[in-house]
Specification:
The two termini are 29 Å apart. The chain is α/β, with parallel strands linked by helices and 356 residues long. It contains 13 helices and 18 strands. The strands form five sheets. A seven-stranded mixed β-sheet has the order 12-11-10-13-15-17-18, sandwiched between helices. The longest helix has 13 residues. The mean pLDDT is 88.
């Protein structure tokens, strides 16, 4: 199999520092101390892809941080077919890379990035019969062209036998930062058929009033520090607590006081109490089931390891997912979180769900 492999090296950088994306915010992300996320995700995908050997695979890539450096680090022999036009990589570099892959008749374009990168790749493959597959590295990842994890992407590449058309969705990140989410269908490219692909994100989760009221009552009665994740379900809890929370950000609350609003990873860590005295409250993404790893990178492994976990969701939302999922950038933590857990679905009611 001939695989075209391209990485958007800045994808997801804005997440942990509270920027909710990187479009137009690269310098601001760096100023806040953001670390690149995509290279490690790309490395994990290549390592998994080549763990059974490379005899049946030919890898084509773009130079430097767009793929060539990572292939060399992993020890994969790759044909570097081009180089970025300038010091900073752009969407145009991604398009040129994919064009070169198509000229070389690759069997699949494997890319590392988020929804914006997916849209760039989809535009480039339009009109061809070449499928694409994403390794998720962005903040939001609404599109259904991505594998669940880097390792899942490798498994899909090694095993798929047919393709189908799936949606590439993207949103305006400036609107997203203001709390507005208006997903736009950008393309419907060919993608490998596999159960290890994520679904498109579904918006809305049904009636959550009783759930929000019950959780808020418990929070008020507690002396612990509560890290309240993004989304409409947890947003209803923030409303019940009586403060105007950040709908797509992470807020920290303790003893009737907002300690941090729309907090970055470092601000969350600074606000946490002693071990055993912190709770992170999150709701899975409808349709996808992600608890961590989509839309909330501020909830990093360092944050999660210092908190107890409270998952909340309406019955309607849970009905859209077969299992919950985590993708924290820390495979050991993902494994620790997996298994059966209780999800709060009402004032006192709970439902057992499996974290895959």
């Amino acid at each position: 199999m001939r695989i075209g492999f391209v990485v958007n090296p800045i994808a997801g950088m804005g997440g942990r520092v509270g920027l909710k994306g990187t479009d137009g915010k690269v310098e601001e992300a760096r100023r806040r101390g953001a670390e690149p996320r995509a290279p490690d995700r790309a490395r994990r995908a290549l390592e998994a892809l080549t763990e059974h050997g490379t005899d049946a695979m030919e890898l084509l890539t773009w130079s430097g941080e767009m793929g060539g450096d990572i292939a060399r680090e992993v020890g994969v022999e790759a044909d570097v077919v081009g180089t970025p036009a300038g010091e900073e990589t752009t969407a145009g570099d991604t398009a040129r890379a994919v064009d070169a892959f198509l000229d070389a008749s690759v069997d699949l374009v494997l890319f590392v990035g988020g929804d914006g990168t997916a849209a760039d790749v989809a535009d480039a493959v339009e009109g061809s019969e070449t499928p694409m597959l994403g390794v998720p590295a962005g903040v939001k990842v609404y599109s259904s062209v991505f594998a669940v994890s880097p390792e899942d992407a490798a498994r899909v590449v090694r095993s798929f036998e047919r393709t189908e058309r799936r949606e590439v969705m993207d949103i305006d990140e400036d609107e997203y930062r203001e709390g507005e989410v208006h997903p736009e269908l950008r393309a419907v490219p060919l993608v490998p058929v596999s159960e290890e692909l994520q679904s498109s994100k579904q918006l809305g989760g049904g009636n959550v009033e009783a759930l929000a009221s019950g959780v808020a009552d418990d929070i008020r009665a507690s002396e612990k520090t509560f890290v309240l994740g993004p989304g409409s379900t947890v947003g209803a809890i923030k409303d019940e607590l009586g403060f105007d929370g950040s709908p797509l950000g992470v807020d920290v609350w303790r003893d009737g006081e907002v300690l941090a609003l729309d907090a970055t990873e470092s601000e969350i860590l600074d606000a946490l109490g002693p071990a055993g005295e912190n709770v992170v409250v999150v709701s899975p993404i409808g349709g996808q089931g992600f608890v961590f790893g989509r839309g909330n990178p501020q909830l990093s492994p360092a944050v999660i390891r210092r908190c107890d976990l409270e998952i909340v969701a309406s019955r309607a939302k849970l009905d859209t997912v077969g299992a919950l999922r985590v993708d924290t950038d820390d495979p050991d933590l993902d494994a620790k979180l997996s298994g059966w857990t209780k999800v709060r679905i009402g004032r006192i009611e709970r439902r057992m769900m499996r974290i895959a």
